[in-house]
Amino acid sequence: MSPPTSASPALSTHDLSLDQAQAVVEAARAKAVEIDTKMDIAVVDAGCNLKAFARMDGAWLGSIDIAIKKARTARYFDMPTGEIGKLAQPGGPLFNIEHSNGGLISFPGGVPLHAADGSVIGAIGVSGSSVEADHEVATAGAKAI
Questions:
Q1: What distance, in Å, lies between the first and last C-alpha atoms of the chain?
Q2: Where is 40: in which H helix or E strand?
Q3: By C-alpha distance, which of 87, 50, 93 is closest to 69?
Q4: How far is residue 112's CA from residue 22's CA, in Å, rounded to a whole number?
Q5: Of 5, 46, 71, 112, which residue has the fewest beta carbons closer than 10 angstroms?
Q6: What angle do CA 23, 24, 26 make, to 5 degrees?
Q7: Domain of residue 116, residue span
Q8: 3-state secondary structure of 95
Q9: What is residue 120's DSSP assignment?
Q10: How far is CA 3 from CA 6, 13, 31, 69, in A?
Q11: Is residue 13 part of a domain?
């Protein structure tokens, strides 16, 4: 294998700042309060590392893991988890994908986070209510960026 030459393109990575992650959590929390639900809200950075998390008072303990996995799933595949779920149905091209990567969540509530240039810099995952409410709260959080 030859060494890289000066003509080799440089890699650049965009990532989520702590301030951005906290703004995402706060926007999601505000939406959850608005629609009168209690949520677990997880934000991961570009490398799928947990960057910010909030468990609203009274939110289900079992939803902590689900929120984190929704965020990671959205980042691993750079698409909303509900879209992955559509592809993961029996007979679909991604059937059984939820068994990969240490366990994925393939129903709504996970949304990628984009920088101004369109690059994916992380994701939010929300759990604690109906999947429709989870998606609504996650989308509100994503709009904070």
A1: 41
A2: strand 40-45
A3: 50
A4: 15
A5: 5
A6: 65
A7: 18-142
A8: coil
A9: E
A10: 10, 21, 51, 38
A11: no
Q: What is the CA radius of gyration of the chain?
A: 16
| 27 within a domain of the structure (yes/no) | yes
- Candidates 19, 16, 58; CA nearest to 39 is 58
Instruction: Give the tokens for residue 138.
Output: 């996650």
> Residue with structure tokens 């509900």?
82
Distance CA 37, CA 67 (A): 15
Question: Which structure tokens are listed for 140?
Answer: 């509100």
Say if 59 falls within a structural domain: yes
Counting the structural domains of the chain, the total is 1
Can you give the pLDDT of all 145 residues of the chain as single tens digits?
A: 656 556 667 767 789 999 999 999 999 999 999 999 999 999 999 999 999 999 999 999 999 999 999 999 999 999 999 999 999 999 999 999 999 999 999 999 999 999 999 999 999 999 999 999 999 999 999 999 9
Could you give phi then psi for residue 54, rounded to 5 degrees?
A: -140, 135
CATH of the domain at 124: 3.30.450.150
Is 1 a domain residue? Answer: no
Q: Which residues of 22-57 are buried (b: 16+ CB within 10 A; e: fewer)?
A: ebbbebbbebbeeeebbbbbbbbbbebeebbbbbbe
